[in-house]
Specification:
By secondary structure, this protein is an all-alpha fold. Helix content is 77%, strand content 0%. The protein has helices spanning 8-20, 24-37, 42-54, 58-71, 76-88, 93-106, 111-123, 127-140, 145-157, 161-174, 179-191, 196-209, 214-227, 230-246, 253-265.
Length: 267
Amino acid sequence: VSLAPQDAAPYIQMGNLKLAEKQPKDAEKAYQQALERSPSSSDALSGLMNTFLMEKQPDKAVAAANAQIAKVPTSGAFYDLLGTALFLNKKDLKGAEAALDQAVKLDKNNTDAVVRLGQVQVARGSAADAIATYQRALQDNPRQVTLDILLGELYDGQHDFDKAKAAYQKALELDSNNPLASNNLAYLLLENGGDVDEAVSLAQTARRGAPDAPDVADTLGWALYRKGYYQQSIDLFQEALRLTAKGNHPDNPNLHYHLGLADQKAG
């Protein structure tokens, strides 16, 4: 700060340090100083909002976002921060959707805003709108694997097997080792009469990429169960239960059901 008193960057880092030290008042002051020097800094605004949220003051976080948007109305990143706070911290779906929609209009390459917008639309009960949002975004960002995976999950939720499969396959064409796309496609094949050998291969790819994910261990176990390798599937289901407990994940009834079926088959 002493070397470059008009540069926002050192004030942002000072705010980050004070926030890490749990000194919110000092953090707030530093972020405000950063915004005075660089009104368009999304890092400074994000830090300021996080400070308010840490103090359980979401209204102040929203007010800070709106104040900065008034100064820099062309910042898609600011609308993204506003929409995220309204969605996650205020449960204001209408306001969040409006803010995130504006973020995407201002910056079509803001994948974070696109993903969040789809999540808001799903939360208000319109998977169709979320699908349309992701499809539009893919026209501008055709190599965004995340969007293809999210589309696959939405189609899967609508029981549209063919479209879900196509979305996961497109994701894997762009990233052949993507563990989430591999896992989701493997499970989709297993649950819809697909090729079990292909499902095993995909599940093994997912397991290599995400060895600590309980749902991935479950998928591979389920694939091996379908192949008749019951003891190997039991080992994987038990590993999935250990990973669930270790990671404090929500307990999964399907996992217990799969383990029970494998135990039954193993005698």
